[in-house]
Design brief:
Chain B: Pfam families: PTS_EIIA_2. The complex is a heterodimer of chains A (92) and B (162). Chain A is an alpha/beta fold. Chain A has three helices and four strands; from the N terminus they run E-H-E-E-E-H-H. In chain A, strand 1, helix 1 and strand 2 form a beta-alpha-beta unit. The relative contact order of chain B is 0.22. The longest helix of chain B is centred in the first third of the chain and has 14 residues. Chain B has a single domain, classed as Mannitol-specific EII, Chain A (3-Layer(aba) Sandwich), CATH 3.40.930.10. The chains are: A alpha/beta (92), B alpha/beta (162).
């Protein structure tokens, strides 16, 4: 099972929305996921276990897993592209 | 956890500001005066916005959703400001690029990972160009309150019930 980190600055608002969207995507596509909703500052704790980071916060740090910008889930602009990006990663 | 507080007192019309810090300061001070947040909320939200920007370019009117940690909040609320003229906010997930924001939703949440349906409805509103344009054109707080209550599915809360 892949571990997906969903992170925003505070772990309060935007990650809650993105978290739910990814859960639904996973369900629709019959993918079992271990989703962790966290603050961006907490990412390092999952550095060894995570497969993907989906975030609305900026991160300059390089990780060993891919990072996908989740702003589209909030504005609707480019959402299909973002969903496809995430799905492609989850299916790898 | 109490009810979400929302009435005309947290709606600010024609807010004049030259910077995002001024917007956050004015909106935050209003919430401090209403005893909805602690004084520490203001520096915290300004700091948070600098670290993690919340400007969102939408199809219609750019919005921002500043928020910060739960410990600064006394009673959860959403404060709304329509800006007199657009103010640049850095775009969420970016570090330099800005968007001219006209509509600010300041989220004061008292619990992490909560309010999913409210937040989803808020984001759905950001995808509704006509609704955003209508909102910034309104000049009456009660009208704005009604539009938001209708679209965000607020249940029962009148001022004074907190």
């Amino acid at each position: 099972m892949k571990q997906v980190l969903v992170a925003c600055g505070a772990g309060i608002a935007t990650s809650t929305v993105v978290n739910n969207a990814i859960e639904e995507m996973a369900k629709e596509n019959n993918i079992k996921l271990d989703i962790k909703q966290i603050k961006i500052a907490e990412v390092s704790a999952y550095e060894d276990s995570a497969d993907l980071l989906v975030t609305t916060a900026m991160t300059k740090k390089e990780y060993r897993f891919p990072v996908i910008n989740a702003r589209a889930f909030l504005t609707g602009i480019g959402i299909e592209d973002t969903k496809k990006q995430i799905l492609d990663e989850l299916k790898k | 956890m109490g009810q979400l507080f929302f009435d005309e007192s947290v709606i600010l019309l024609d807010l004049a500001a030259d910077s995002k810090e001024e917007v956050l300061n004015k909106m935050g001070s209003n919430l401090v005066d209403l005893d909805l947040v602690k004084e520490s909320f203001i520096p915290a939200i300004i700091q948070r916005e600098a670290e993690f920007a919340t400007g969102l370019p939408t199809a219609g009117v750019s919005v921002a959703i500043p928020h910060t940690d739960v410990e600064h909040v006394i009673n959860k609320t959403i404060s709304v400001a329509i800006l007199k003229k657009p103010v640049d906010f850095v775009i969420m997930g970016d570090d330099i690029e800005t968007t001219p924001v006209q509509l600010v939703f300041m989220l004061a949440m008292d619990e992490a990972h909560s309010q999913l349906s409210l937040l989803q409805k808020l984001m759905a509103m950001f995808q509704n160009e006509d609704l955003l344009k209508r909102l910034v054109s309104l000049a009456d707080k009660t009208e704005i309150k009604n539009v938001l209550e209708e679209n965000l599915g607020f249940l029962a809360f009148e001022g004074g019930e907190r």
